[in-house]
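Predict the 3D structure for this chain.
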Amino acid sequence: MTETHQTLSSNKKRAAKLAALRFPTLADLLRSAYDGKSKRITLARTDIESMQTGPVPEGELREELLRLASSDCTLERSRELLLVGVEKLGRHPLAAKLRHFVGDVLRRHPAYQLPTLDGVLENKPEAAPIDVAVKAVTGQAFAQIHWPDGFPPLKKIQIETLRYTAGHCLLIWLRETRGIPLDRILYMLHACCWAAPEGRTGSDATHLRILMSSRDRKALDIVFSALEKKANEKSREAAAAREAEERARLRVELTQASLDEANRLLESEKLRTTALEEQLQRERLEYEDQKAYLRSDYEELRGRVLHRLRQEVTLLDEGLHALRKQPPKVHVMEDHAERAIDGLKKEIARIKGEAE
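Done. Predicted structure below.
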């Protein structure tokens, strides 16, 4: 009896807790978002915990919710759900479930039926680049979009709203699935949504009125902070570039100084080499002249010595011939020998005198 009473008490507390939750399941959140009753969605921690443990809409329930979401012609509620996923859920597993459902809504929306978007939401490698996809979504002719039967054509203000929200949804989707940074999102928002048509930028006075009349200070602060951050980054990059340029300039100056010194040494060595070559050429000529003189002197000396030797040999030969006669003529031999010896002594003395 006691256990039954505790079980009933526990069931009542669980029922009371579920009744206190605004969104017990993900289907409740999606139904509340797309029924158009509230524009801003707030999630409590208990709602997130309950939705995470609760069932995911599937089958007929999912188709019912997708049909309900088809009424979101301007995609404002889909954008709100994506922003809720970014702000409140972050990397929570429930964020992927919510984003998956909104992705199906976008794939069925007439504004996303462009060939350029094939594979973009699925992050396929062959899909169009991010900037091309965003420009295709925001730049299409929204007034000519073909809506299913039963949907009245959009008013002008709704068309302009859809142009923005279609781009916003794609940018949020790409941020969550591809991790594109905030500064790139700002750039594409400006290029695809905010920038005035060419030739209609307005004067400074017009810009001043627009700035002074703007009440969305948070958005302006975000944009200005992002621009200031980017400007500071560019300033730091410029300062680093100037420092690198100065270091490069100093290296160039040092290199130029080294090159000038090397050129100076090269010119000096060239002059020295030229002087040595000229000196070598002079010495070669002097050597050739000296060799010619020596050859001439040698030939002259050789001829003279040979002539002297022939003369003296002739005298000695005549003297020997006189000694062989009967009776021997010794006095002839003595005369010729003395004359030969005297001639040889004179030649030896002459050679010694020339050598000195």
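The chain has twelve helices and no strands.
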